[in-house]
Amino acid sequence: MSIQTISVDFPNDILLALNESENDLKKRIKVTLAIQLYKLQKLTIGKAAQLSGMSRLEFEKELCKNKISISNLNEEDVLSDIEKLK
Question: How far is CA 34 from CA 41, 46, 85, in A?
Answer without folding.
Answer: 10, 10, 33
